[in-house]
């Protein structure tokens, strides 16, 4: 077993291609919150590609982490000079690896919040980007308003009102403190670039930051509104969690490599205050209106992930490609996308939606990346309200499409949240609301609408007869005959 450690000094000894540029000449231009597998398989890769072309050398990435779980990533990357291996796997089993060098530092901000603010205040930082997950934006799912009851947020607001930056806890506090410093120094502000799976992610970030800043100082909020761009973006690449097997597949030691599919897409609103990398040279689609692309991805790909994961997990499948090996799942997902997801989209001239839908089915079936069903089931209370329920509400309001299959997906989540699969095995529910979800689902047999009555998650859907009828039929069927037979009944309709 090899003991060669991935590092800048050892790059020439490794059997993979390393950065083809002088990393000592790379300077910081981007701060990124949420350095996980997806960011390293996506945004960091695009910048690395540009650097290999001699571009964007002043857009090196400094990672920032605010959660205790971020320490592990910081330590892993720091131990290997912030390098890591990216392996892309095709559905036919081919793979290619390279070492990515665009990340040049990583700060765990609780160790020195004031230093993190100083980095953000530096004029060299032109972009602050975010992949903090759908639940990281701290807003109410139903009302879409900022949650001021979060104690860490409240503490950061109080500190910033008092001019203190040495104990800031959230990315809202840190980023806003950086903007306050740049405003005071009359420095061009950075652009805040959300890359999370939220409809209108830039607009959402804009609204949330204005709410946060407004609680500190109304004039600060006005300045941010007038000077700080928040471009929308659509990002896409299936990136499963790294496993020990992924590490062992390498002929050298990499503490945290990344494995992903060979497909990648990035559609980005071209709205930046202090410049941007030449993203268009490496395949990024720069557009004026991202929303139609966002809706396509969220309501077809992401919602379909929810459509397969609960049914699939209940049936006993643990890998996504095993779910998709059953033709009924592909048929169900295509039916959802064609009959309910697609009618809720905005016009997309030049996009072949039928080809896109079938491409998604092929991507889901990629056995090489070993994506887990459990990963797709995680954090459902943040995902379902953002990806699937908007489809339901729009179709109910317009009357242009049914909601039968969408309701069945919600019912499959309700059945999954009961915490036991169809083989009698316990389900580990990974969700910030796990206890509450299980308690709600525990009443499913006595009151078929028990799970749906949580208005913080579902709003007033429990009051809509068309939706509740379809939901009730699906949940009763799941209890009586199981997931696969339920899918058969739905498809027979």
From TrEMBL:
Read off the InterPro entries from this record. 6-PGluconate_DH-like_C_sf, 6PGD_dom2, Mannitol_DH, Mannitol_DH/Oxidoreductase, Mannitol_DH_C, Mannitol_DH_CS, Mannitol_DH_N, NAD(P)-bd_dom_sf
Q: Does the keyword section mention Transport?
A: no
Q: Which GO biological process annotations does it have?
A: mannitol metabolic process
Molecular function via GO? mannitol-1-phosphate 5-dehydrogenase activity
What catalytic activity does the UniProt entry give for this protein?
D-mannitol 1-phosphate + NAD(+) = beta-D-fructose 6-phosphate + NADH + H(+)
Task: Give the Mannitol dehydrogenase C-terminal domain ranges.
Answer: 289-478
> Which positions fall inside the Mannitol dehydrogenase N-terminal domain?
29-280
TM region positions: none
The record's comment on protein family reads: Belongs to the mannitol dehydrogenase family.
Q: What is this protein called?
A: Mannitol-1-phosphate 5-dehydrogenase
Which species is the source of this protein?
Answer: Corynebacterium stationis
């Amino acid at each position: 077993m090899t003991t060669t450690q991935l590092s800048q000094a050892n790059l020439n000894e490794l059997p993979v291609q390393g950065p083809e540029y002088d990393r000592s000449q790379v300077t910081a231009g981007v701060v990124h919150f949420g350095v996980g597998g997806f960011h390293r398989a996506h945004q960091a890769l695009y910048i690395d590609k540009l650097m290999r072309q001699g571009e964007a050398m002043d857009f090196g990435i400094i990672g920032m982490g605010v959660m205790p779980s971020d320490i592990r990533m910081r330590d892993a990357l720091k131990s290997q000079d912030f390098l890591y291996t990216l392996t892309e796997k095709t559905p036919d089993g081919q793979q290619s690896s390279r070492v990515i060098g665009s990340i040049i530092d990583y700060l765990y901000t609780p160790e020195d919040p004031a230093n993190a603010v100083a980095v953000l205040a530096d004029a060299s930082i032109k972009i602050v980007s975010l992949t903090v997950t759908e639940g990281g934006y701290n807003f109410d799912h139903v009302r879409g308003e900022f949650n001021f009851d979060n104690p860490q947020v409240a503490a950061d607001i109080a500190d910033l009102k008092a001019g203190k930056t040495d104990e800031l806890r959230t990315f809202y506090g840190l980023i806003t403190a950086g903007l306050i410093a740049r405003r005071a120094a009359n420095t061009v502000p950075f652009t805040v670039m959300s890359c999370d799976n939220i409809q209108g992610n830039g607009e959402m970030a804009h609204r949330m930051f204005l709410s946060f800043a407004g609680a500190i100082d109304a004039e600060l909020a006005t300045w941010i509104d007038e000077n700080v761009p928040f471009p929308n973006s659509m990002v896409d690449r299936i990136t499963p969690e790294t496993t020990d097997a992924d590490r062992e597949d390498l002929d050298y030691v990499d503490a945290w490599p990344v494995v992903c599919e060979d497909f990648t897409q990035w559609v980005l609103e071209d709205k930046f205050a202090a410049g941007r990398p030449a993203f268009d040279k490496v395949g990024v689609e720069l557009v004026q209106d991202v929303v139609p692309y966002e809706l396509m991805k969220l309501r077809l790909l992401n919602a379909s992930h929810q459509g397969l994961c609960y049914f699939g997990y209940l049936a006993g499948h643990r890998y996504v490609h095993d779910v998709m090996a059953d033709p009924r799942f592909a048929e169900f997902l295509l039916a959802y996308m064609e009959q309910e997801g697609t009618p809720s989209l905005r016009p997309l001239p030049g996009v072949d939606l039928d080809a896109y839908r079938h491409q998604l089915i092929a991507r889901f079936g990629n056995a090489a990346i070993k994506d887990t069903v459990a990963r797709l089931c995680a954090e459902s209370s943040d995902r379902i309200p953002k990806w699937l329920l908007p489809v339901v509400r729009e179709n109910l309001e317009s009357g242009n499409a049914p909601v039968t299959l969408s309701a069945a997906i919600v019912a499959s989540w309700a059945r999954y949240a009961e915490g036991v699969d169809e083989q009698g095995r316990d389900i580990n529910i990974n969700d910030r609301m796990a206890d509450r979800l299980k308690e709600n689902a525990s009443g499913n047999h006595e009151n078929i609408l028990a799970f749906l009555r949580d208005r913080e998650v579902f709003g007033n859907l429990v009051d809509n007869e068309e939706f509740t009828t379809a939901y009730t039929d699906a949940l009763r069927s799941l209890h009586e005959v199981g997931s696969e037979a339920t899918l058969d009944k739905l498809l027979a309709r």
